[in-house]
């Protein structure tokens, strides 16, 4: 299946994994709408994507995944511009880490609202479009969605929930010809949690690797569905 002229909607697409996915789809001839809570960030990322790929089919949208109305408005902008949506990548996410003794209610709420409720609003706002296109819904979970760690109460809860949520949604929607998968990366070289990627991150999964994976998923024969994919660095540093 070709990606040419496929229309993709990527939440949190202005940097990191979302940016890498957008770049991969554009290189395959697809069209991409990316969102950020900052229009300035969305527009800068859109221009960077155009410059890197030579593909001008990028739509920058300001939207907040925590707000269903904001998501509905974003989807309307995409369908008004391009008529349909073929691929949705629920990528927007964040992390607050620390002992449960120190974790604040505000940090808990922001993590759950973004990483879990934000995916709920993403599928709720796009499901009718995906029914029409028999499209693909992909969530970006984490190995933290099956592996717990100290200081990860909020993040683990959000990603364990997201992994289960995605699998249930897969069962709900496959009768419409909609494919649903979750990708669960380990260490990725991104700006997540204040980190700045550098040469010391060469051993990590790169954002373009996740982008290639998304393209491969979409291009796979529709009769086959890798519904949950765990992704690890091949050669992590020795302890």
Give your account of this protein's structure.
This is SDR family oxidoreductase. InterPro entries: KR_dom, NAD(P)-bd_dom_sf, Sc_DH/Rdtase_CS, SDR, SDR_fam. Belongs to the short-chain dehydrogenases/reductases (SDR) family. It comes from Fulvivirga lutea. It is globular, with a radius of gyration of 17 Å. A 7-stranded parallel β-sheet has the order 3-2-1-4-5-6-7, with helices on both faces. The mean pLDDT is about 95. The protein is about 45% helix and about 15% strand. It has helices spanning about 15-25, 40-55, 70-80, 105-135, 155-175, 205-220, and strands spanning about 5-10, 30-35, 60, 85-90, 135-140, 180-185, 230. It has one domain: NAD(P)-binding Rossmann-like Domain (Rossmann fold, 3-Layer(aba) Sandwich). By secondary structure, it is an alpha/beta fold.
Spell out the blueprint of helices and strands.
Layout: E1 7-10, H1 16-27, E2 31-36, H2 39-53, E3 58-62, H3 68-82, E4 87-90, H4 105-133, E5 136-140, H5 153-173, E6 179-185, H6 207-219, E7 228-231
Family: Belongs to the short-chain dehydrogenases/reductases (SDR) family.
Organism: Fulvivirga lutea
Pfam families: adh_short (PF00106)
Which short descriptors sum up this protein?
239 residues; alpha/beta; Rossmann fold; 15% strand
Gist of the model:
The chain has 239 residues and is of the alpha/beta class.
Q: In DSSP terms, counting alpha (H) and pi (I) runs of 4 or more, how many helices?
A: 6
Mean pLDDT: 95
Low-pLDDT runs of 5+ residues are: none
Q: How can the largest sheet be summarized?
A: 7 strands, parallel
Q: Kindly, what is the distance between the CA atoms of the first and last residues, rounded to a whole number of angstroms?
A: 42 Å
């Amino acid at each position: 299946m070709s990606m040419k002229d496929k229309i993709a909607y990527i939440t949190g697409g202005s940097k990191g994994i979302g940016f890498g996915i957008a770049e991969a789809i554009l290189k395959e001839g697809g069209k991409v709408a990316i969102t950020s809570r900052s229009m300035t960030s969305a527009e800068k990322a859109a221009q960077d994507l155009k410059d890197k790929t030579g593909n001008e089919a990028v739509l920058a949208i300001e939207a907040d995944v925590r707000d269903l109305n904001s998501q509905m408005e974003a989807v309307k902008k995409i369908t008004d511009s391009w008529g349909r949506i073929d691929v949705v990548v629920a990528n927007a996410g964040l992390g607050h880490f620390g002992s449960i003794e120190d974790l604040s209610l505000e940090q808990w709420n922001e993590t759950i609202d973004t990483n879990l409720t934000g995916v709920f609003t993403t599928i709720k706002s796009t499901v009718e479009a995906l029914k029409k296109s028999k499209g693909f819904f992909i969530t970006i979970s984490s190995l933290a969605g099956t592996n717990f760690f100290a200081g990860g109460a909020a993040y683990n809860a959000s990603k364990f929930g997201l992994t289960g949520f995605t699998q249930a949604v897969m069962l709900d929607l496959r009768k419409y010809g909609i494919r649903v998968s979750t990708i669960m990366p380990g260490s990725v070289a991104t700006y997540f949690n204040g980190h700045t990627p550098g040469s010391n991150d060469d051993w990590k999964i790169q954002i373009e690797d996740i982008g290639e994976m998304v393209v491969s998923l979409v291009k796979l024969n529709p009769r086959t569905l890798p519904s949950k994919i765990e992704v690890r660095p091949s050669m992590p540093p020795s302890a």
